[in-house]
Amino acid sequence: MRETIIRNRRAWVPAVLRYNEVPARILLEVCNLSNAEDRQLLRTQEFRQRVAAAVVAALLDYYDEADSETLPPPARTAR
Question: Structure pTM?
Fold first, then answer.
């Protein structure tokens, strides 16, 4: 991830990184809350579970540990 963005010959730090106390290495954008369809999807438990499973699968794939024994048990879902 770049720490600065350059547009129109002007450098700036994205708002999500500006005052972050923890160094960011991954920025995961799942949906856009300004988009009505995305907001509706985010309200469903099924979508949130699918996103969580996809993130876990991607991390395991990235670290080459994607065999069935390393998969975490299914998470209990909050209501």
Answer: 0.55
